[in-house]
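Hey all, sorry for the wall of text incoming. These are the two entities for the joint prediction.
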Amino acid sequence: MIEATKEKPFSVFNEDGEIEAIPAEVDHFALLGVQRKFKVDAEVLESRFYELNRKLHPDFFMDAPVAVRIRSLDATARINEAYQTLKDPIARVVYLVQLESGKLEENERTPPPELFEEIFEAQEAAEEFQCCADEEEAENLRERLNAAMGCFSALKDGQRTALDRLGAAWDEAVEKNEPAPPEVVRKMRSILGQRNYIENTLTSLRRALEESE
Amino acid sequence: MAYSDKVVDHYNNPRNVGSLDKNDQTVGTGIVGAPECGDVMKLQIKVDEGGLIEDAKFKTFGCGSAIASSSLATEWLKGKTVDEAEEIKNTQIVEELNLPPVKIHCSVLAEDAIKTALNDFREKNGMPVVERKGHH
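and here's what came out:
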């Protein structure tokens, strides 16, 4: 979507300085006036957010008609949500990819079977470890959990690196006014679709190991 | 968010937790996940010579609603034929467990797991697999 990145940022205030209702289709990037891409300048983002937030402070609207007050509150909520999403690198890339190619859950329900097998093995070992009484068995399990921890941490790091690389390719296309390459979008969707499975597994492993200490 | 009594019951006393031999010709296995929350679910059926589901097991790592949905699914599967089992809908699970809108995807996951397990069984036994339709 080339036009969107070049579009003038949406203005919450019209020429007469009145608050405009924000149409639903205005995305977080347009709302905060930053280019729709993978990398966002954190300082610019923060200053845009504070500037808008200041202008929308409830003190300015105490005597305003109800409709205007409601609009100012709506705008504040939208701007908050946009800022929370865009300042977090992972939340931002999830948002960006979904904006470009639709909800992740629509087509990422079945990640590679090998990954699922490893997840079930790790989760089952964590469960067993937590209710296991036999000391020797516990020692074996602890080793397995530590090994799994290493594997999944490495997987997570690898995916993070891959995301950065793909994000750079995405931004390069945006700079040239080209749409994000479909191959890049596809790979990013696949990585993001697996992210929560890996996170949950790491959480279970960590919890099991911590409780035993 | 409060869970309904039925969810809590299935969560505290999950029915049919466990595994069946996935290489057994009479066993169908469905492994699915929900990328939005990272829940993973394995559901297995064992079909007897008369074509009835004689056993069903599940293993779910996820939230209470996902565990309850799969636990309930295994209860419903037992005693049904493969074709009858195909008719189980996520909306029935939502209704039975009184799942709130944010947890509907847990029931979708359970329906997905059932259908994947049924197709795995069909495939192993040379029966035509059933095409998947879109979600709700």
